[in-house]
Amino acid sequence: MSSYQVIAKRFRPQKFSDVFEQNAIVQTIKNAIRLKKVGHAYLFSGTRGTGKTTLARLFAKALNCESLTAEFEPCNSCPSCTEISAGNSLDVIEIDGASNRGIDDIRNLNETVGYAPSNGRYKVYIIDEVHMLTKEAFNALLKTLEEPPKHVIFFFATTEPHKVLPTILSRCQRFDLRRISSLKIEEKLTSIVNALQVKVEKEALKLIASHSEGSLRDAESLLDQLLCYEEPPITYEHATKNLGVVSKDILFRIDEAVKTSDYSKAFAISEMVYNSGCNLQYFLETLANHYRAIALAQMGEVKTSKEYKTQASYYTKHHVLTILDQLIDQIEKGQKTPFKRIHLEVTLLNIIRAKKKIELDSLVERLENLRNSAGNPAPIMEAAPIKEKPVEAIDEPIEKEEPLPHESAPLEMTPPQEEVVAPLEKKAPMPPKEPVQDLEEKTPQEEPPPPAPEKKSASFQPPPDIQQKIRHDQVLRFASVELNGSIKQ
């Protein structure tokens, strides 16, 4: 019985044109081969399953290919290409940086660098997960990496380029591989399914593509797993059960609960998710992606299904953004709390409750309408300045009372003088001093009484500025009541 070959290995790209979403890197490599400007060290970095090792193998295959095509693609038929594809080539040496990370392993590599290639033009070393090498191993590789023999080329692959020493990075040409889009992954999975002659629903392939998070290898592994789960045809329900993904029906039930403001459904949905065995933290992340899809449907940026257009009609844009903010906070808090189920229930209750909150923009709009109806030209959010009138413009001037004599000018006390008694003349008698009490009694009789204020007529109207201030205070008082009510809710 022939051994089974997994999909990821069976459908590995054998040409540069089969590589997805890395067009700039592929073009650079082809031009380097065409212009004969091949460097001595290259670093491929990026997330898992994006084609780092595959590009290194294709590059090595093209360098040693005996008959390149017109587009500088490897022929995949010459002995060198077939050996590299099968992993039996003596000129392409692959090293696992995670298990061969010590200084002794690099010393052995430095000793074999000087040997000439057996069949091809170049001897290629591919070191995968190069960031796992120790600092001593990196230092031992520096001299060889800087001035290798002309027939030696190094290819490094890593998912964490920040852990590679800067001295290594400065000696390499670096290529950063991007994540593969869900549409490209779905296109690749469709071609694989057609080649295998297996019937799989398009929704199931779309679910696998979105679940792989930009990794083509993860998507191919998930498809391989799904084909072993159920006999064809494979449906969307099969994919959700096998992958442990939350069904759309549960997410749509939350939308219905929001539409009807039914708080009891929050506990029913939490019970359903809990009994299904789904990871509650993963469910919150799925819920965040669900509301992201609703936001995209509202913005009209991407084409969405009719279902999401219907669900988007249950929310306003402000409501969806508020829910997304809450979910981001709850996802972060959910990693720390031990009460996962209660945390999920509270999150769902807050989502349903968020619809009844008054939007700040609408509240300001209502206040602006009230201000316009009151005839107040001053804006609501800024208090209108109060103009001070000059004293001359006041209708009823108040007469300024004159100060009393003992208030305006303090009594001057004459210092005591020494008495000089003349022998022949008598002392003149001093005039008697008036007591202070008599002065206080005489003072109010001398001042005329202030005129009585005139009575205001019934048709008296305050000045326009005072009317404006009264209206403005009433509007601000109403605004404070509305804002306090919305905050308490």
Question: What labels describe this entry?
Answer:
Helicase, Ruva Protein, domain 3, 21 helices, single chain, 5-stranded parallel beta sheet, mainly alpha, 489 residues
Structure description:
Helices cover 51% and strands 6% of the residues. The chain has 4 domains: 7-176, Rossmann fold, CATH 3.40.50.300; 182-243, Helicase, Ruva Protein, domain 3, CATH 1.10.8.60; 248-356, Zinc Finger, Delta Prime, domain 3, CATH 1.20.272.10; 360-378 and 469-484. It is elongated, with a radius of gyration of 44 Å. Residues 380-384, 389-400, 404-427 and 435-445 have low confidence and may be disordered. The protein has 489 residues and is mainly α. It is built from 21 helices and 5 strands. Helix 3 (52-64) packs antiparallel against helix 4. The chain has helices at 7-10, 23-34, 52-64, 79-86, 103-112, 135-146, 166-169, 182-196, 202-211, 216-229, 236-243, 248-260, 264-275, 280-299, 306-312, 317-334, 340-353, 360-374, 405-408, 436-446, 464-488; strands at residues 41-45, 92-96, 123-128, 152-158, 173-176. Strands 2-3-4-1-5 form a 5-stranded parallel beta sheet, covered by helices on one side.
